Amino acid sequence: MEACIQLYKQYIKLERSLSPKTVEAYLHDIEKLNEFLGGRKKLEEVKLEDLQDFMASLYDDKISARSQARIISGLKSFYKFLLFDHKIVHDPTELLDAPKIGRHLPEVLSIPEIEAILDSIDLSKPEGHRNKAIIEVMYGCGLRVSEVVNLRISNLYFRDNYIRIIGKGDKERLVPIGQTAQNAIRLYMEGARAHVKIKKGEEDIVFLNRRGARLTREMIFMMIKQAAEAAGVTKTISPHTFRHSFATHLVEGGADLRAVQEMLGHESITTTEIYTHLDRSYIKDIIERYHPRK
């Protein structure tokens, strides 16, 4: 079984291209189950009842429902691999239910709120055009904060109106970029960035701090928080809020969900489906316009 676990590790790392952290988490889930079994059974002998007892122990240990669901996901992946590799005949996780988790609708900014945040940025300061370009790119392209931090000049294809993104698990995708975001990046690169002494090895990074090194996630988070406060936006927001707003505005505008999935870099369409929620004012308007007993 130890050899099977090593083969599984190679499979999720190389064939499924999962990130090192996800690989580590999946292997930890297997080890946790093995510890629970305590030598009473081998992993390949596990039945549904054993897994249910294991999940009950996690509940007793006050492991959150979200963490339980993630552990089940890891175990399902492992046993499907064993079944596919003919190491077991029946998959014991097939009927294993995950705990119900309430789906959280992310905070979304309205277009006037986004414009207010952009207008609140002081462009007379050295970092002004950089900060505005960061927000334009996050909202205009739906990027994760890690993707903004690591955005490279060599991956900007403005002639074709695309940027190349290296996302989770080192997966690449091409994301369209509009003229507004392009112009914001150009203004920053031709202005403030051109006067920064760039640290060795960071020459290809788009967004730099005043010492010529790439920004940290924390720096972008603080910048956004300050801009939101200056704009009078009271919602609790983070860099991810602009990604949520990007997707929500596209879907509410009628964009194809598969296209939004590709732009966001989601592996599963179910992750993207959270953006099919509509704001209450829109639903209220539809009822008032079309319901016969409005």
Q: Could you characterize what this model shows?
A:
With about 290 residues, the chain is mainly alpha-helical. The protein folds into two domains: about 1-85, Tyrosine recombinase, N-terminal domain (DNA polymerase, domain 1, Orthogonal Bundle); about 110-280, Intergrase catalytic core (hpI Integrase, Chain A), CATH 1.10.443.10. The protein has helices spanning about 1-15, 20-35, 50-60, 65-85, 110-120, 130-140, 145-150, 180-190, 215-230, 240-250, 255-265, 270, 280-290; strands at about 155, 160-165, 170-175. It has a three-stranded antiparallel sheet with strand order 1-2-3. Helix 2 packs across helix 4, helix 6 (about 130-140) packs antiparallel against helix 8 (about 180-190) and helix 6 packs across helix 10. The longest helix is centred in the first third of the chain and has 20 residues, at about 65-85. It is globular, with a radius of gyration of 23 Å. It starts with a helix and ends with a helix. Residues about 280 have low confidence and may be disordered.
